[in-house]
From TrEMBL:
One of its GO terms (biological process) is protein insertion into membrane. This is Outer membrane protein assembly factor BamE, lipoprotein component of the BamABCDE complex. Residues 1-25 form the signal peptide. One of its GO terms (molecular function) is protein-macromolecule adaptor activity. GO terms for cellular component: Bam protein complex. The lineage of its organism: Bacteria, Pseudomonadati, Pseudomonadota, Alphaproteobacteria, Rhodospirillales. The keyword Cell division does not apply.
Amino acid sequence: MPSRPPVLSVATVVLALGLTLGACAQDVVPRGNEPNPDMLTQIKPGEVGRREVAALLGTPSTRSAFGQETWYYISSKTAQWAFMEQEELDRQVVAIDFDEKGVVSQVRTLGLEDGQQVGLVDRETPTHGNELSLIQQLLGNVGRFGDTSGEQ
């Protein structure tokens, strides 16, 4: 029986490798609420109020909690390869400030480069009580349930 030429087996390996890598394509996902640029140009400071902004851009992603009222429209594009960690490619934050009368005072656009890393506190609040092992948690209720009719 004649053996197969090595070129055929190499071609099979290359084809299988190509199909495998093709299945792991980068997944780019848009997220959030990115306002239409044409609608943004219609928002003129000193001329437009909250209702008009809501009609043009819709509900904001979030609002300021303290100080001057600001509406934030946040959008981003993320990418991920198969099981790898997600990476943020682009971010846009449109911040619309309102004065005390509810009229737009300023429109700002912030990008990924304007963001700041926030250090999170990794402390835990201690809880008082018993520290139960896994076995104690699993077997802790065995025998506690009896007659549910109320009679003892």
